[in-house]
Amino acid sequence: MKILHNFLGILCGFALMIILLITSIEAVTYWTPGYYEKEYAKYGVLNDVHMEMDDLLDVTDEMMAYLRGNREDLHVPTIVNGQPREFFNDREIAHMEDVRGLFVGGLLLRRISIGLIVACVALLVALKADIRRVLPKMICAGSALFFAILAVLAGIISTDFNKYFIIFHHIFFNNDLWMLNPDTDLLINIVPEPFFMDTAARIAATYGVSVLAVFAICLIILYYRKK
After folding, report:
1. Which of 19, 36, 83, 114 has the highest local Cβ count within 10 Å?
2. Taking a C-beta distance cutoff of 8 angstroms, is the pair 89, 80 a contact?
3. What pLDDT score was predicted for residue 31?
4. How far apart are the first and last CA of the chain?
5. How many CA atoms lie within 13 A of 128 on its CB side?
6. What is the rounded distance in angstroms from the CA atom of residue 146 to the CA atom of residue 218?
7. Would you state the pLDDT for residue 227?
8. Is 138 helix (H, G, I), strand (E, B) or coil?
9. What pLDDT digit, counting tens, does each position of 103-118 carry?
10. In three state form, how does the secondary structure of 24-56 look?
11. Which of 115, 109, 111 is nearest to 12 (CA)?
């Protein structure tokens, strides 16, 4: 029975790490005030797309709303080089449909993970497990294992970001729509590779802090329980 208790606790830890990872991505890409404006200015994006900052930020808001399913399409009119036009062309729209699938899938995975934690805790209660001992201890163990796997992957990716960025696209996309042309596709110009690197680093930092907070809370609970 103890093995089952520990297994359920580790499952909670894994599910919690998935929740924190997806939430960290959401926090950086949706909840960080001024993030896109700062990145656009940093990499001279306005000169590449020949747009005013307010217009580009409006396009960005519509794009991010689309990615999480809050907008039906990506037909976004704007001003480019002083002329009215739609920002996204057909190829970009088709690619962003694939990207939206990843975003929406991630949000669904988070909801499933929350449900898994609720189910595991309910089962532990039904099995009359010592919740205050099992959960903090096994969440630490499961979280440490999950975080270690991610840390190894992050270390590998950091050796050649461009190489693994391409591998990522080959894994998650079954077409070449992600291979955009900066001469014809504005999307690739507003999210250059350094932008992705900055975003990945910020997500990693946010996630790391949240994981450390979970560890601290679990250790405090175990400490006071022992006392």
Report:
1. 36
2. no
3. 95
4. 25
5. 0
6. 16
7. 64
8. helix
9. 999 999 999 999 999 9
10. HHHHHHHCCCCHHHHHHHHCCHHHHHCCCHHHH
11. 115
Q: What is the pTM of this model?
A: 0.89
**211 closest CA partner among 36, 13, 64:** 13
- Output the six-digit token pair for 73: 């399409």
Residues 12 and 221: their CA atoms lie apart, in Å, by 16
Between CA 90 and CA 66 the distance in angstroms is 15
Residue type, 193: E
pLDDT in tens, 168-196: 888 888 899 999 999 999 999 999 889 98
Please tell me the total number of residues recorded for the chain in this structure: 227
Residue 192, both tokens: 């250059």
CB 49 within 8 A of CB 80: yes
- With a CB cutoff of 8 Å and minimum separation 6, the contacts of 64 are 29, 30
Residue 41: C-alpha distances to residues 45, 129, 152 (Å):
6, 54, 32
Per residue, the 3-state secondary structure of 199-216, as one string, reads HHHHHHHHHHHHHHHHHH
